[in-house]
Write a structure and sequence with these properties.
Order of helices and strands: HHEHEEHEHEHEHHEHEHEEHHE
Helix content: 40-55%
Shape: globular
Strand content: 15-25%
Strand order of the largest sheet: 5-4-6-7-8-10-11
CATH class of the largest domain: Alpha Beta
Number of helices: 12
CATH topology of the largest domain: Rossmann fold
Radius of gyration: 19 Å
């Protein structure tokens, strides 16, 4: 299991246990991993369709999009998605229609909060880079929100595009030339699977970074802030349960996650010579030492 999916799988399993399911007795998990390669997702989704699974559970716009492309009949449950309506996975949050339902992580709406937190941690922040992929349908909304939020904070924003991990070195070279002093890494299977490498590139250039999921802070990012992936996937289990009992995905309202986590990496802060404001220390759900 890829480490960036650990909390997703643990949350789903816990949610199913809470509902009385016993793995190996009345359900089986059949895994497929893209391992950070979005170009593999359509083929992997097609494999699951050929296996005639009862439900596909997945997370992130590229994987959900691949499942949508692969089937219109097998129910798809989303464990995390930034903007399900904007990505055209649902007609509306209240009544999604089609074969897709699940839980949103409200990520697009949090873009401004990420920049605010980074500014709070790095008072000198004046020029921030946003690492994003034009191939990810939600990233366009992220980038638009980031530009708006940066203007309100009085800082400049630079979009740094990637299509795969081979683009990261070039992107960080651009950031060095531009003298970027902060980085927002948008959620995507590529950035998630390469978060350790991204953390190393940030450390090499003494660049503070923020991302959505706690795994990024654990890998060495300065901080992470967002919906709990574990909790979201535990809630996704209730959709699986209802669908297996006969509910139609298109009739199940999309939930919005409610449990947020702020994780600060103290080792990274020390290496960058940053003093963490007491207000953030009090609000943090976890401090990595």
């Amino acid at each position: 299991m890829p480490s960036n999916s650990k909390h997703n799988v643990e949350g789903l399993r816990q949610g199913l246990r809470d509902l009385g399911y016993v793995e190996g007795r009345n359900y089986v998990l059949d895994f497929r991993w893209g391992e950070g390669r979005n170009d593999r997702l359509v083929d992997l989704a097609a494999e699951l369709v050929r296996a005639n699974v009862n439900v596909i559970v997945t997370a992130g716009e590229p994987a959900i999009g691949a499942a949508k492309q692969a089937t219109t009949s097998i129910p798809v449950v989303m464990g995390a998605v930034g903007d399900p309506v904007g990505a055209k996975f649902a007609v509306s949050l209240a009544r999604p229609g089609g074969n897709i339902a699940g839980v949103s992580n409200l990520a697009v709406e949090m873009t401004g909060k990420w920049l605010e937190l980074l500014r709070e941690m790095v008072p000198r922040l004046s020029y921030v880079a946003v690492l994003w992929s034009p191939a990810n349908p939600t990233h366009h909304a992220f980038w638009k929100e980031a530009q708006s939020a940066a203007r309100k904070l009085g800082i400049k924003a630079l979009g740094v595009e990637f299509s795969g991990p081979d683009d990261f070195e070039r992107g960080f070279t651009t950031m060095a030339v531009e003298r970027i002093d902060g980085l927002l890494v948008l959620p995507d299977p590529v950035t998630g699977s390469n978060r350790v490498r991204l953390a190393e590139l940030m450390a090499k250039r003494r660049l503070p970074g923020i991302a959505l999921f706690r795994e990024s802070a654990e890998a060495g990012f300065l901080l992470s802030y967002g919906i709990s992936a574990f909790n979201n996937h535990r809630r996704a289990a209730t959709y699986v349960d209802r669908i297996l009992k006969g509910a139609k995905p298109g009739d199940l309202p999309i939930e919005q996650g409610t449990k947020f986590e702020l994780i600060i990496n103290l080792k990274t802060a020390k290496a960058l010579g940053l003093s963490i404001p007491q207000s953030l220390l009090i609000r943090a759900d976890e401090l990595i030492e």
